[in-house]
């Protein structure tokens, strides 16, 4: 995979490689326990155990990290495939077919490094990566609006597609978004 790198203040934002995997896993697991409050769930988080096999090996997947020195302080991942039904609504799975959809995962920044532009920079690298892949026609993501700052951040960079608070049933209270891809009609 082609390496991409940018700088945000004292941070490097870049395509991950093998040396970043332990640090990235730590950021992700800490987020599950601290921010989400439910910890590691194998049915939702199996990619975190094999980050290399999930994100570094497949051609159309990627993992990006923000580092300060040798410490990984933020992550963002891209995987091929749209939302699954269940747990997400059927109309979303139909709108975002696996063959032409990239999905953002694991956009996490350690609390002491937030509000530094890292999530925006990581998402920017992910969007650039997806836009260079001709197979992708859409970039989809979902978030839990109960996580502090998540919903306002996503509303600043993406278009809401489905919000369960609009009256439709969604057991997980997940808000779904799409990020426009440069040069792709939607």
What does this protein look like?
With 186 residues, this protein is an alpha+beta fold. It has one domain (5-179): Gcn5-related N-acetyltransferase (GNAT) (Aminopeptidase). It has helices spanning 21-34, 42-49, 51-56, 90-95, 118-131, 150-157, and strands at residues 5-8, 11-15, 62-68, 71-80, 101-109, 138-143, 159-162, 175-179. An eight-stranded mixed sheet has the order 1-2-3-4-5-6-8-7, sandwiched between helices. The two termini are 27 Å apart. The mean pLDDT is 91.
SSE blueprint and pairings:
Blueprint: E1 5-8, E2 11-15, H1 21-34, H2 42-49, H3 51-56, E3 62-68, E4 71-80, H4 90-95, E5 101-109, H5 118-131, E6 138-143, H6 150-157, E7 159-162, E8 175-179
Parallel strand pairs: 5-6
Antiparallel strand pairs: 1-2, 2-3, 3-4, 4-5, 6-8, 7-8
């Amino acid at each position: 995979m082609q390496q991409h790198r940018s700088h945000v203040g004292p941070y490097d934002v870049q395509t991950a490689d093998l040396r970043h995997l332990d640090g990235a896993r730590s950021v992700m697991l800490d987020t599950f326990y601290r921010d989400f409050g439910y910890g590691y769930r194998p049915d939702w988080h199996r990619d975190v155990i094999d980050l290399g096999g999930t994100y570094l090996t497949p051609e159309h997947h990627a993992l990006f990290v923000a580092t300060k020195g040798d410490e990984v302080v933020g992550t963002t991942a891209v995987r091929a495939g749209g939302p699954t039904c269940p747990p997400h609504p059927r109309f979303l799975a139909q709108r975002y077919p696996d063959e032409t959809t990239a999905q953002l995962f694991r956009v996490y920044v350690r609390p002491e490094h937030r509000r530094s532009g890292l999530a925006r920079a990581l998402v920017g690298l992910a969007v650039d990566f997806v836009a260079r892949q001709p197979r992708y026609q859409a970039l989809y993501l979902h978030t839990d609006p109960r996580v502090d700052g998540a919903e306002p951040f996503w509303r600043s960079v993406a278009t809401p597609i489905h919000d369960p608070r609009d009256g439709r049933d969604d057991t997980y209270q997940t808000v779904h978004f799409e990020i426009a891809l440069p040069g792709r009609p939607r």
